[in-house]
Model the fold of this input.
Amino acid sequence: MDSNMSKYSTLLTLEPLGISPPHILPVFMFGTLTYCAILFFNITLLLTIALNQKLHKPMHILLFNMQINDIVGASALFPQIMTSMLSQNTSITYSACYVQAFLIHLYGNGSFLILTAMAYDRYIAICCPLKYHTLMSTNNLLKIIIMLWTIDFTVIGLLLGLSYRQEICSTRIVDPFCNNPSLLKLICGDIRLNNYYGLSLTALQHVLTLVVMLFTYIQILITCVSKRQSDAKRKAIQTCGTHLVVYLCAEFIALFVIISHRFENVSQYLRGAFATSFMVFPPFLNPLIYGLKTKEIRQNITFLFNKKISQS
Done:
């Protein structure tokens, strides 16, 4: 690549979605409606929690952070991919590609961190109820949230920063959106440090979150079963089941996408479908699973809409 050329304004070519022309408009409309639904559900939940003092509880505050994270993830994907689909232009500048990759990885890493914090909150609430208000005080909750976002920004910043200034010999992104594995394939030089850091980060994070999840779920089940109360057992199954399904789905998709980049014979369309689903389904389903399923939040959402209708 010409050294006089500004690398940061260089146009990269994203992998097309492979949608036939007659289907572009229907898919575009469906994608736009999906993005609008994601924004509507998440913003509604954000406003409900923010405007109601009774919902300023640790679990709801962590849920508030999850909705912010989901909006970041969906917004990093949908506007770019919908615009590319409609215009049939898959070009993106090098700098814009890195911004998108940063936001996408920030969302993915943040999802696991927030789910882990939510599991810890439920563990304290069910297994140590007398210590709950002390361990999950406002100050401690604030420290947890600051720690989550600090870890998220630092880890992902280092991950993307290692390769940002390196020379590139290709302009083809092998996915329909930008991510770190695709960007690494553009680099001419030695990327062993990037791979070591990325793999170590992935292994450490997934092992730690899995250990925390298993420990909290097992302790919750043991505590509730030992109480021999049907309502306690139901609460344990509901709490563990919801978190476990969301966590395992995210874990499976993330690991598949990461591993698939190591094998050239994996279909790029299959990899792209899995990666895209990670940024579509959680942001769409999380407000429904954690919001509307919670009686207290559901009642406040209904009250909020009724209040708006009565004032109009």
Q: What stands out?
A: The two ends are 60 Å apart (CA to CA). The first strand starts at residue 11 and ends at 13. Residues 163 and 184 are 7 Å apart (CA to CA).
